[in-house]
Design goal:
This protein is α/β, with parallel strands linked by helices. It contains nine helices and eleven strands. The strands form three sheets. It has a six-stranded mixed β-sheet, sandwiched between helices. The protein has a three-stranded antiparallel β-sheet with strand order 1-2-3. Helix 2 crosses helix 3 and helix 4 runs antiparallel to helix 5.
Length: about 280
């Protein structure tokens, strides 16, 4: 559960996020208006004003469109690495909880086939042995991500299942817990958050976080992502992985996302509907 490490405001948000199915808060702190929340799988959320502004805008739009509180709703929050998916996913789930609508949050970082450190090594080995085209094809594919598991969670939730089978990867130790039966029968909203989450079938809405490379790289460093902190891997990530990722994500943004969420500064956010949505599910 969340621990009170600083102010009452910090404790309140930490406790709210800790109540969401699918996420457990280990500790939290707040400095200069930015809240740091560490989860029990070693992940770190850095929540600031821009995350709140974007989430509030998205939440208001969703509440205006989906007015039946009894109807189950599945939302994905996707976009480039470091764009704020984890923070906005957690805040969105918390807003639903506060509105009396139970929610479940599924971080897709728990569903790559390989744990992060080993996936980074596999990406590099693939690049060294087969070249740029092989790396580009691997990123966000079914060879990298367990989309079948994510699809089963979505399907089971929408069908009214009492439990879904989650998975957890410790971001620090790379330990994988393959099966975590989780009660979700009372939940009404399921939020997936992850780079490639717009590819999950049967979504009610797929939200794409539009941002630029400089902002995402800075946010990744701020969250202490291992691959960015590793000097040996930095050049490979920045010169190959992230640019290839951006190309594939642009196609997803144009063809799979139903909503585009962006911001110009910390306090202003923009939400646009994608009129070119080509999803078939």
């Amino acid at each position: 559960m969340a621990q009170n490490n600083s102010s009452s405001e910090n404790s309140k948000l930490g406790n709210e996020i800790d109540q969401i199915i699918g996420i457990n808060v280990e500790n939290s702190s707040i400095v200069d208006g930015e809240e740091t929340i560490k989860t029990d799988n070693g992940d770190i959320l850095k929540i600031n004003i821009s995350h709140r502004a974007r989430t509030n805008l998205l939440f208001d739009w969703l509440r205006n469109k989906y007015t039946d509180p009894a109807k189950k709703l599945v939302i994905s929050v996707g976009g480039p690495s470091g764009s704020g998916k984890s923070e906005i996913g957690a805040l969105l789930s918390a807003l639903y909880q506060n509105a009396g609508i139970p929610s479940i949050l599924v971080p897709c970082d728990n569903f790559p086939i390989r744990a992060p450190k080993f996936n980074d090594l596999h990406r590099r080995e693939l690049f060294d042995s087969k070249g740029k085209e092989a790396l580009a094809a691997y990123l966000g594919s079914e060879d990298e991500i367990l989309f079948s598991r994510l699809g089963d969670i979505c399907k089971d939730f929408l069908s009214g299942a009492e439990t879904v089978n989650l998975r957890k990867i410790n971001m620090q130790t790379c330990e994988i817990t393959e099966s975590i039966p989780t009660k979700v029968g009372h939940a009404r909203v399921l939020v997936f958050e992850g780079t490639w989450s717009c590819r999950i079938p049967s979504l009610s809405e797929s939200v794409f976080l539009a941002t630029d490379f400089k902002k995402t790289a800075a946010h990744r460093q701020n969250r202490g992502r291992i691959e960015i902190q590793n000097d040996e891997n930095r050049k490979f990530i920045e010169e190959y992985v992230l640019p290839f990722e951006q190309v594939t994500l642009e196609n997803i943004r144009q063809n799979l996302a139903t909503l585009w969420l962006s911001y110009e500064d910390d306090r202003s956010a923009r939400l646009a509907e994608n009129r070119n949505d080509q999803r078939t599910n």
